[in-house]
Amino acid sequence: MSHFRSSALATATAASLCLVLAACSGSTGTGGDTAASPSTKGKATLEFWSWTEGVEAQVKVWNKEHPETQVKFVNAAGDTVYQKLRAAVNAGTAPCLSKMDGMNLANFAADGLLTDITKVAAPYKGKYTPAAWNAVSPGGTTFGIPMGSSPLFTAYRADLFQKYGIEAPKTWDDVIAAGKKAQKENKNVKIFNMAGEDPSTLVDLSWQAGAQWYKADGDRWVVDFTSPEALKAGDVVQQLVDDNLASSASYADPGVFKTWDLGKTIMMTTSTWQLPIYDTNFPKSKGKWQLADAPLFDTAQPRTSSSFDTTGVLKGCKYPDRAAEFAAWLSSSKESLTTLTDPASKSGLFPAVKDVSPYVDKIIPTEMFNGKSDSAEVITTAASRVGDQWQYGPNYAAMYSEMQKQWGKVMKGELKVKDMLASLQKWTVDDLNGKGINAVAGS
Amino acid sequence: METSVSTLTRPPTAATDSPVRRSSPRRAGGRGAWKGLLFALPFLVGFLATYVVPIGFAFNQSLQEKKSSGLGFGPTQIVYTGFANFGSVLTDAAFWSSMARTLCFGTVQIAVMLGISLFLALLLDGVAARAVRFFRAGLLVPYVVPTVVSSLMWLFLYSPTGSPLHDMLARVDLDFDFFGGLNTYLSLGNLLTWQGIGFNMILISASLQALPRELYEAARLDGAREWRIAWSVKIPNITGILVLTGMFSLIGRLQLFAEPLLLRQIAPESINTDFTPMMEIYDKAFKAGNYQYAAAESLVLAVVTGILAFVFYRITNRKMS
């Protein structure tokens, strides 16, 4: 169940989904030492939009300790927050800081709505994982500070795996073999789920395979949807479709959790922020799940994917240095992280800092798992394995919407993944060039 | 549900039928004209602010494109590119196929919906006044329920994972897929018909009530039975309202948006992001972030809708006379 995140769900009129989405938020960091002394002088007040539970309390803590830099918290929860934020920037009333996911940070940056904070943010770079820093630095320019990460790993129905005589798959080839075996035992059972509206499965697989759809090379983009790595990822999706090994429950379907809870689909890739949701949504299969490392493409080069939550610094912010300082404190200081990663804060946050070990134990729900595997170790491993090659290009949102259109056809078997990738390759290069951006096809 | 109320208040042809011309001060001449203008002012202000200005703004936007440079992260520039966006829209296969899909689907669905509405209205016309009031109110309920609510209600019924219908079918070892191929259109059509029957029935029914009862008496004297009266007397006398409801429904279908967008949540493979022209425009503007292109698409859709409404009205009017 890759990710509910992202614009894929902008249609979430269903109130239940809003709740789910609200859990998809977070902030993280390390730090504590204020290495960079702010270069702006005097008293300043920064506005900060967020919709992560528990962050408001942290803002109060910060304000008490930093009389010079006061942060005004605005709860911006809602389906249209990114639209509101865009309007605010255009009207000159934007906050200094706002929570945004990695994809939107790239979109905002591409539309010139963010402030370049490469210099003032440099002192905080070392606290975060390289992959997290990539997420706030599209094209090599830093526009924000990482907040949280959602590294992918696997959850599977240990009881059913045993029943069907299969083991937790180590590679994607194993997934396909296990899927076939399980289907031989019970023709109604699927090993995986791929939703028709959500091509993030392909994004994750490509990331894990080491593909780079977008790669900044000097002052141009090398666009490569058809590299051997990208095709390898596409091939896994194709096999799952061709052999009918995956269910097709839409993540927006109100009954989606039943797919796994009733044992129709017996494995999923998942992430930290989703764990707390399962305790309430898996009433029948509670205690029958087990965690494992995400399936790999190359066991010699283990790599997983993630999606990052960030704090972007918006255009017009007068104190970018202090904005960066606050954002880094919020997502990397032990003081802030200890509180935010506590389930009591309901933030659902998993830190994007290099050392996550102090925070892992607390976020693991107790009722969902059978206790036979070391969940903490799986999560720590996943966090350390996030591939740091992945980049969001300046037209990522438009490309994603184009991919979404074709993805439904792939799921229906009307289009081959290979052909979709080839057409995306051409579409992306043409679109970038049309916008006046240098881009070439990589293969 | 866009069927009626929203379109009643804004037929796209209104823009060409400029009220400014009518109240032109020069024609009326003198002081009286100014007074007239003063009376028209509240309307004019509203019309300018909510119609002319937004359309002008959209038109202006549709002539622009957003350009970046270098790696594409940083300041952007808005440049005028003439009718380049319109050129792309005119050759955009996805846009036109969504238009064709919506029209074909709409034609069938509207015919079915109005057929049922007409049938019910005729039935009501034949029964006692007390029963009429009850049925009228009852059949109007689906129309009164907000679109989002009724769409969600059907969404739960259609849901492949959560629907009680699937549970019931599974008990007798059956299964039925509400989406895919023709089923997608049947499911969506059922929802739209359910929403629209009551409202259209009320309009037709009101029109029937207005017919002089003497006509029926005359027909009865000539030996006509009830069904013959309905077919030869009632229906020919209410073609006006049938044309009107047909046109409003057609305009509503071309603007179809909320219902398929919501159903997409459970049937993303069958209802793509470019299923209807409005969904395509929404996707371009708010997902892909290309407001300029979306503005051009909106204007083209408005023009097509206007032309179709005009043609439909002309053809049916000619037939009537």
UniProtKB/TrEMBL annotation, chain A:
Endpoints of the signal sequence: 1-22
Keyword Iron-sulfur attributed: no
Pfam families attached to this UniProt entry: SBP_bac_1
Keyword annotations of the record: Cell membrane, Lipoprotein, Membrane, Palmitate, Signal
Entries under InterPro entries matching the protein: Bact_solute-bd_prot1, SBP
SUPFAM superfamilies: Periplasmic binding protein-like II (SSF53850)
Source organism superkingdom: Bacteria
The protein, known as: Sugar ABC transporter substrate-binding protein
Organism, as annotated: Streptomyces spongiae
